[in-house]
Write a structure and sequence with these properties.
The structure holds 2 protein chains of 2 kinds.
Chain A (H helix, E strand, L loop, with lengths): L1 H7 L2 H19 L3 H19 L13 H8 L1 H16 L7 H9 L3 H7 L2 H27 L5 H12 L6 H12 L15 H27 L9 H46 L22 H6 L6 H6 L21 H7 L3 H18 L6 H11 L2 H4 L3 H7 L1
Helix pairs in contact in A: 2-3, 2-5, 3-8, 5-8, 5-12, 8-9, 8-12, 10-11, 11-12, 17-19
Chain B lengths: L1 H5 L6 E6 L3 E5 L5 H7 L17 E6 L2 E3 L9 H5 L2 E3 L3 E3 L3 E4 L21
Amino acid sequence: MLAFAKSTVTPRALSLSALAVSFVIMMTLGGQFYYLAALVISGIFSLLDIFGGQDTENPEVKSWLYPNLQAYQIPPAMLWFGLTYAWYLGHGDLFGLGAFMKAHTGLDMFAIRAHTTTPELIVGAYCLGTIWAGFGTTIGHELTHRTWSKTAMITGRWMLALTTDASFAIEHVYGHHVTLGTPADPATARRGETIYHFIPRSTFGQIISAWHIEANRLARKGQSVWSWHNRMFTGWAMTLVYAGIFYLAAGWLGFFTFFAVSWFGKCYLEAINYIEHYGMVRVPGHEVQPRHSWNCNQRISSWLLFNLPRHSHHHAMGDKPYWDLQSYPDAPMMPHGYLTMIYIALIPPIFFKMVHPRVLDWDRRYAIPDEYPLIAEANRRSNHPDFTGGSYSNYAAAE
Amino acid sequence: MLNKLFGGGSKPATVTVLPSNTSFTVDPKKTILLAALDQNIKYPHYCRVGSCSTCKTKLISGQVRELTDKSYTLSAEDIAAGYILACQSVPKTDLVLENPRLRVRVKEDQGALPPETPA
């Protein structure tokens, strides 16, 4: 038992559990605690990320129990945060939640709601959106890859539906994992493309791609696109269930607030997509290799986002659960952690200045000759002087 | 209970791949691909998540449990012809498969698998 505790209850696991508990407390208490949660999410996480250093260790995980428990604690937390937020936004006592909490914990949610201000609710919506994106969709992504477990795949879709995108489970696996780095992939950011151009292009591109993939699957099975066999429809229905609960709690305000939060979360998710493969190219049909993702070993980003930043290994071996993902220190590396880069990406000139030298370095050190024509084409289309004017674009052409 | 959850049998299955006549055992709950890779057999593959179809293999005899819907990846003709995805198929019985792209049985002493090391 001691050996088990020693190998699984690591500082990492304990700090994550402590964080989960503190977020449950903050999001349940609502009101001014939303400010505190927002400060932690947008300030403290990034500061820790900047100064937390790197974690390149690849511990061998023998028991799945504890890391799995950590993954599965997220879905109920996501639903709880959404439910309490909707409750504070509304007026009645949805599902008897207020009465239940008062009777069993002594927490007077009615009193908290009476003092909750509109700015607090707006900040609470920001927290909910970022938490749904940062934790909900991250775990949703993790679980939809676990094809050996139906429970995981269904839970994953429900998590992705929080950000109005259960179809991510289709496009990501059957689209992105195959088309990564090629023009066919909506979720690979092009050279010179700003995040503001990428988010709508990628979002709608992925939905359209998912629809085609799903329609093809149904056609091969002889099933109609216009039926409940269509997972696009069941995915949207999942999102409508959430929206319905918000409606029950807070009427149309709740309904529209849900979609505002959900779409904001989706944008946040796409911001992560944006930085993960920015500027990379791959020959269609060639193997996806670790060099086709921007890897990131920043300790706090990896810990908080369930090793999603260990993206090189994820794309090379998409079937590995998060605790088996390795750090791949020789892979192309992102300059900072995810929790820092997504904010930098919001200011395109700074993002370009920071990342373009790395893209050019990628061309030199990681690209293979078959990719040089694609690099030349991507540079030409970038309309950005870093790629069109410099000496390097000629290097690819000369090769 | 676990077997029901993960869909494998309770005994290891023997899988034979033609025409190279490569044989290997697959532990319960394990996919054909992962079992082969664990035994240093260079089974053709790359995405490992059921989307690229590199590991597509013809099922000659035996039964498998398929983790995902192969209709996402294989054409209607391939499915009708009995193709499965090795990365998403767990043997329920001993199997005979056909995959002309699997040619050489790699020696046991080769060491780490190429796909297990970063390129």
